[in-house]
Structures are given as C-alpha cells and as structure tokens.
C-alpha cells in the first residue's frame, strides 16, 4: 500500500473544490497518516527529559548517558552563562516586549551582534529568534520568482523551506558534488542565483567542499550562503566555524548564517555579512521584522558563551580526541560509521525498524542515542546519530562502543 501524503497535491479530478462526494475530515486524514507512519516504523515520539546533569539525562525515571545533544562544547549548563543570564534578568526582566524594530532591540542584542561579527570576521551581524526563522528570512528576502536557488540535497529543512517560501526556482544537487552544483547553476545561466549549503551536514556530520563551492560561485556570479549551525564553535581557528576553517572571506562567502542553540548552548541564530546584506534583511526579512526579539538575557548568556567558545581551545581539543577515540574504537569493532571528522558521528543502520530496535536496546543499557529515520534522512538510510561533546569522558565513549558492538545486528 502506498502511503497517503499528508498534504496531497491536487490531482486533476480533485481540482473542483467542494465538488461531489463527502468531504474528508482533515483530522481523520491526519490520523490515517499516523497509522501508516507507525506501520512503517516512522512514527516520531516525544520524550520528556526530567533532569540534565552534564552528559547525563533522566528520562522516565532512568539515568541515561546522552549522545544526542548539540551542546558540543558543554556550555548549556556552564556557570558563566547562568550568571550572565541571571544578571541580565535582574537588569532587564524576562521578555524583550517587542520586535527589534519597535523597541525590542536592547544593548545586549547590539553587543552580541558586534561580538558575532568580530568572531566570524564579518562587517555586521543580525540576530534572529531561531535558525529556522533566519533561513526563511534570508531566502525569502533575497529571492523572487525569477531567481534560482541551488542547494545541496542534504541541506537542512529550513533552507529548503526558505526557497519554497521565496517561490524561486529550486534546484538541488548531489550531496557535496561541486560538478553537480555547476550543472544546476547552468540550467538558468542568466538568472540571479543563490547557492546555499550547510557547512557541516546535520545528520551526516561531513563538511561541505566550501572552498570549491566558493570558487564556483565566483566564476558563475552566484552568491554563496553557508548555514554553519554545526560548525560554529567546533571548527576553524577560535571555533569561528567551517567558513573560517576554509579561509573564506566575506567576499567569498557573503552570507553566513549560524545558530546559537548548538555549540553555544543557548538559543537563537544570526546572519553575518556586509552592511548591505544586513540593512537589506532589516528592511525585507519578514521573520526578523514580524516577531518578538530574543529575550535580552539570552543575548547576554550568548555573549558569555562566545568568550568561552573562542578562548577555551581545550574544549575543541578534547572533542578532537573523543572523535578519534570513537572512530578508531568503531573500526576495531567493525562498526560502520559515516565519513565524518566532526562531533556528529552517525552509525549506519539502513532499515527504520532496525534502527529503532538498536536505539531501544542502547537505552536499556543506559545510553540515549536516538534513531534518525526518513524523511529526516533519505529512505533506507536510517541511522543512529551519535553526537559527542566535551562533556563526555573517554570512558563514556568506551561504554558506547561496547554497547554498540553488543546491540548492532
Ligand atoms: C538546527 C539547525 C537549524 C535550525 O536552527 P534552530 O535555531 O534550531 O531553529 C538550521 N540549520 C541547520 C543546519 C541546523 O542544524
């Protein structure tokens, strides 16, 4: 049986809205789609975390070693962030009370934008409330119906949704394949074009060929946008990200977006680039204009996080050691990993039900390693997404390796 799409496209015989027949209830359709998902082992399940302590979380009363966190540097519970947040709350209260353009933009936001611009080597930076909103805002502000957007097939959902919202021509290229990207640009050689790529791919952990993509964009007069949600804090000198690691200037990579909720341990996102870009976004990015500013306390906590992320290089060194340990230990035990040098170290499984079963077994053994299944990853490529953090000890990695060796089919 073919799964019924949740939002079916209109087929020719359905285009008479309100035609004959009994109208199908939207929630009935939703329920039918749910059962179909469950049948295919694709149902998503919300788990409630009852406590967090370093690399440990508690779910359903059980202590688990957490390998699912994007808190790569171990900053989300850091005392300096808590203190900066508490001080800012004492000064400002809790909410920003308004959108940035209508009195919500506090000096904590302005200071954070300056710090982000300095760190990433860009002229200016602009805060957004989430990474999802930043990507929607940038793409819909820059691209119109006649424009071309070329994207890696494995880009984050928010980049794809941004292109859909913009209504531009969207062409996707084979993952990390620069020749394929060039062919997609060639399909519309005279249309203004944006090439967007994740810096570090969120479900695979590999790094985009950024220098080659930048060269292609220069040759084709396309604008390069990099979403560095998983690279900022982790890669490059002082953790300035994948773009800094590839030594790409503001001219090479004119649009840099990254989030504040991953390695920085807080929440929110920013776009960095030229004054022209930032001023244009302030005028046109609807997800910036029509939403409440981040709480100023979160901006203050993020400024504190940047200091630690930049200057406590031992956190990155420790991550590097843990990654090497995990990869060599996996090779010794015959565990298949994807090619990744970042803290995202997925274990290939393939079948969704099998991935769920292994994840459940690991949980029995006290380890939280969720299964990632379609449509988050392509069909037949279900996996366990192992995320390492400076909070882990070598012995935690050893425990994970032994448990994986026991549980994998
Ligand atoms: C997490 C993520 C986002 C979304 O960021 P949020 O702040 O969580 O909304 C965007 N792009 C990539 C690559 C991500 O991993």
TrEMBL record:
Substrate binds at residues 44, 156, 376. It is an enzyme of class 2 (transferase). Keywords: Biotin biosynthesis, Pyridoxal phosphate, Transferase. Homodimer. Pyridoxal 5'-phosphate binds at residues 131-132, 202, 230, 259. Catalyzes the decarboxylative condensation of pimeloyl-[acyl-carrier protein] and L-alanine to produce 8-amino-7-oxononanoate (AON), [acyl-carrier protein], and carbon dioxide. This is 8-amino-7-oxononanoate synthase.
């Amino acid at each position: 049986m073919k799964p019924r799409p949740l939002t079916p496209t209109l087929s020719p015989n359905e285009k008479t809205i309100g035609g004959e027949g009994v109208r199908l209830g939207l929630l009935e359709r939703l329920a039918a789609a749910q059962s179909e998902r469950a049948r295919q082992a694709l149902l998503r399940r919300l788990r409630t975390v009852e406590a967090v302590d370093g690399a440990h979380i508690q779910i359903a009363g059980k202590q688990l070693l957490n390998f699912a966190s994007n808190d790569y540097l171990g900053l989300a519970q850091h005392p300096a962030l808590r203190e900066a947040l508490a001080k800012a709350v004492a000064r400002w209260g809790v909410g920003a009370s308004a959108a940035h353009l209508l009195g919500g933009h506090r000096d904590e936001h302005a200071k954070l934008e300056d710090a982000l611009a300095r760190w990433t080597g860009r002229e200016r930076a602009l805060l957004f409330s989430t990474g999802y909103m930043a990507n929607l805002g940038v793409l819909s502000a820059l691209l119109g119906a006649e424009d071309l957007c070329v994207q890696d097939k494995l880009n984050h959902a928010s980049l794809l949704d941004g292109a859909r919202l913009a209504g531009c021509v969207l062409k996707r290229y084979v993952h990390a394949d620069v020749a394929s990207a060039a062919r997609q640009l060639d399909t519309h050689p005279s249309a203004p074009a944006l090439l967007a790529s994740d810096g570090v791919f969120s479900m695979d952990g590999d790094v985009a060929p950024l220098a080659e993509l930048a060269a292609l964009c220069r040759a084709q007069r396309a604008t390069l946008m990099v979403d560095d949600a998983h690279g900022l804090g982790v890669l490059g000198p002082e953790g300035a990200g994948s773009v800094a690691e590839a030594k790409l200037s503001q001219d090479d990579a004119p649009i840099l977006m990254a989030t504040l909720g991953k390695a920085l341990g807080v929440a929110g996102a920013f776009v960095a680039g030229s004054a022209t870009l930032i001023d244009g976004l302030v005028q046109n990015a609807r997800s910036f204009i029509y939403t409440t500013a981040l709480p100023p306390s979160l901006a203050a906590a993020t400024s504190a996080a940047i200091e630690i992320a930049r200057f406590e290089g031992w956190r990155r060194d420790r991550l590097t050691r843990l990654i090497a340990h995990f990869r060599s230990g996996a090779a010794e035990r015959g565990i298949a990993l994807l090619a990744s040098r970042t803290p995202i170290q997925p274990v290939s499984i393939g079948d969704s039900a099998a991935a769920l079963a292994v994840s459940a077994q690991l949980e029995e053994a006290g380890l939280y390693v969720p299964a990632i299944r379609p449509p988050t990853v392509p069909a037949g490529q279900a996996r366990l997404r192992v995320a390492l953090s400076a909070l882990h000890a070598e012995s935690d990695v050893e425990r994970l390796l032994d448990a994986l060796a026991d549980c994998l089919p």
